[in-house]
Amino acid sequence: MSDTQKYAPGSHPDLPPPPGTIGVIGWLRANLFSDITNTVMTLLSLYFLYWFLNASMSWFLLDAVVNANSRAECREMADGACWAVITKRIGQFIYGFYPVDERWRPNLAFVGLFIAVLPLLYPKTPFRRHMLWFSAAYPVIAYYLLCGGIFGLTEVGTNTFGGFMLTMIVGVTGIAASLPLGIALSLGRQSRLLSVRVISIAFIEFMRGVPLITLLFVASTMLNYFLPPGTTFNLLLRVLIMVTFFAAAYIAEVIRGGIQAIPKGQYEAAQALGLNYWQTTRLITLPQALKISIPGIVNTFIGLYKDTTLVVVIGLLDPLGIGRAALADAKWNGLSTETYMFVALFFFVSCFAMSRYSLWLEKRLSTEHK
Amino acid sequence: MKKLMFAMAGVASLAAVSTASAGTLEDVRERGHLNCIVNTGLTGFAAPDDAGNWTGFDVEFCRAVAAAVLGDASKVEFITATGKTRFTKLAAAEGEILSRNTTWTFSRDVDLAQTFIGVNYYDGQAFMVPASLGVSSASELDGASVCIQTGTTTELNLAEYFSSNGMSYEPVPIETNAEARESYLAGRCDVYTTDGSGLAATRATFDNPDAHVILPEVISKEPLGPVVREGDDNWADIVSWTLKAMMAGEELGITSANAASLASKLNDNPEINRLLGVDPLQGAEQAGLSSDWALNILSQVGNYQESFERNLTPLGLSRGMNALARDGGLHYIPPIK
Predict the structure, then answer these.
(1) Residues of A in contact with B42 (CB under 8 A)
(2) Which residue among A88, A138, B57, B112 is least enclosed by CB atoms within 10 Å?
(3) Do B16 and A234 touch (CB under 8 A)?
(4) DSSP state for residue B331 in the 8-state scheme
């Protein structure tokens, strides 16, 4: 007992935790091998992962062919995926049939899009005030950049638009235009003016009550019967309008939910302060309602973005349409897995980015007492 | 809000509203290119190649019309249409020709106010089965499961054929040809049925085509041809005779290789002389065609046989019904006089 050291109360130094409860090993023991069931499950999962990755990696990467001129050539080289259908047609997947010499224009428009949305999405952007002017002018700039016809730019018909470029045009326009329209509709629905309220409700209920695919068919076929004979009205424009209206109706309902979630005391306080309707809306209602609605709004946007693939049914060649056209080429017939995987990857990356941004935005705007 | 207004301004200027003038031919010449409505993708008939150029049997017909009226086969813009939107696109003047393997039927011709100008491909619905099934005739297919594209005339033909033969079948609905290919190969259905050309084209892409047979029965008539809007007879004539000129080219032995040399001399066959503009062809000028209209078609695109062999022969399709009448087929060309 003589080697027992004695400490005055409270002066014992901190000892390291016993080995096996900290670090990698500790974590593994606590989380993966804590008891028999857990250990068995871990081993089974590991085996499954190995089996899955082993099989899929050899198909996706190891046995895959990226450079060949036809499916038959791919099959001669290896048994895996034939990504050659993508690499050979990557230009079409991105730009559709946009003239090759003019492809710098969509590229420039794409870069411009980022410059235009940066000050809108990220408030700490340097020179934000000045850049907002560019954002406001961007739709016009992008339109003339893509379609041409002025400043010596060759005119390019919208029927050549396709691929991811078309998705971006329909998706971004739909998202950008449907938000203000949706806000207006949601306010209109709660308006005290009967006509405004009735029109808003009728619009929202009609648009929500009809599938988007029906609206697209109306845009592509029915409108021709209503317009005077011989009048043509750009198909892409018709689609953009329909997609915007459709999304706006959903956005309106999402924001209405946000507005109704605001405690009544907020309005009463605003009235007590002597704010009029527009001041209340601008300073009290919308900032809170929009913040509450962010998940719903982004949800609608992601849905809208993916819905753009529906344009394939009216003959516009979005990535899915380009993929189908590629599969119709005798050389690439039968490579549907590769084509659809590639398109799915594109949509996953875009939608995942949107969803991450919304999470960041929620965190930044979070002032709630939790 | 300002952004929205700008967006609307941009959108409004996009709404280029154009109004058609006198005749289709004049419109096309003034515009400088032909707008042709084609399939969004059908093997052998219309599909973009790796470089983004449209190729295929129906596409080449569009090019032939451009060669006839504009003198340049490359001056075509292709408008893609699905089976559901094709007729309204034509009616709305988004294109001057609908060249999209469209079956000629009474209702489509009469009710939809459009003109079928001829048949460029005779097709018919057929059945494909794995050879291992040991079936040699469609009459042995009682109780089979059949992959069938929904919402097409083939669905109706199938139902009619089986009920009129007192047989039953189990439909496996599929949406596209690519999907049908996968389902059929995976054994989800015993039989795949669609137009014979589609079956042959699909079978040609199998890893082992010989393991599958196309049964001899053809259960429907599918005369496929280009369509124009009703009301401009001159344009219909031009499109119609473009097709006939391609077939006449085959009949008279004019190919893209020898067209120019035949046109530069007086030939023994007066029909060749008239077709190639060596001798005057009565009426061509009144129709608004230049004297070298058929020469442009045949030298730039080629005759019917060349087009067929470029696009459809590689898929394993034989001429069959699509041979000229003199070879036992159905294409009979009126005299070029």
Answers:
(1) 328
(2) B112
(3) yes
(4) B
| Neighbour count for residue B286 (Cβ, 10 Å) | 8
Q: Which residues of A46-74 are buried (b: 16+ CB within 10 A; e: fewer)?
A: eeeeeeeeeeeeeeeeeebbeebebbeeb
Looking at chain B from residue 124 to 153, which residues have their Cβ under 8 Å from any Cβ of chain A?
none
CB contact (8 A) between residue A88 and residue B201: no
* Subunit contact A329:B47, Cβ cutoff 8 A: yes
Entry pTM: 0.81
**pLDDT tens digits, B168-209:** 999 998 877 777 888 899 999 999 998 888 888 788 778 788
Interface test with B, best of A327, A335, A343 (most B CBs within 10 A): A327
Q: Kindly determine whether residue B6 and residue A137, on different chains, have CB atoms separated by under 8 Å.
A: yes
Please provide the DSSP assignment of B270-291 as one string.
Answer: HHHHHHTTSS--TTTTTTT--T
On whether any CB of chain A is under 8 Å from the CB of B175, the answer is: no
The number of helix segments (H) and strand segments (E) in chain A equals 17, 1
As a whole number of angstroms, the distance between CA B281 and CA B303 comes to 19
SS (H, E, C) B213-245: EECCCCCCCEEEEEEEECCCHHHHHHHHHHHHH
Q: From residue B224, how far is each of A3, A199, B87, B101, B184 by CA, in Å? A: 104, 48, 14, 5, 26
**CB of B304 closer than 8 Å to CB of B331:** yes
ipTM of the complex: 0.77
Q: Do A328 and B42 lie within an 8 Å CB cutoff?
A: yes
Which of A53-62, B138-147, B180-189 shows the lowest per-residue confidence on average (mean pLDDT)? A53-62
CB atoms within 10 A of CB A299: 16
Residue A141 neighbours by CB under 8 Å, 6+ apart: A109, A112
